[in-house]
Design goal:
single chain; about 70 residues; mainly alpha; about 0% strand; elongated
């Protein structure tokens, strides 16, 4: 989860190669499908909320009846 919060920091840190280049420049950042990354992060947040609230086992038991 913390990785998603820190991903914009890739634009800030230089690569340790002595040239002062960034890990991720703006041209590459524009091409990243940010919508997919946000959707993935939202799924992780929802799953974490389900587990912490205790609703995850309830949903699991409800879906267990759908076996074929």
């Amino acid at each position: 989860m913390r990785v998603w919060r820190c991903s914009p920091l890739w634009l800030c840190f230089p690569v340790p190669n002595g040239k002062g280049e960034r890990l991720l420049d703006w041209k590459a950042a524009v091409k990243i499908p940010w919508g997919i990354l946000i959707l993935f992060a939202a799924g992780i947040c929802i799953a974490s909320a389900f587990v912490s609230s205790g609703i995850s086992p309830i949903i699991g038991e409800a879906l267990a009846g759908l076996r074929t």
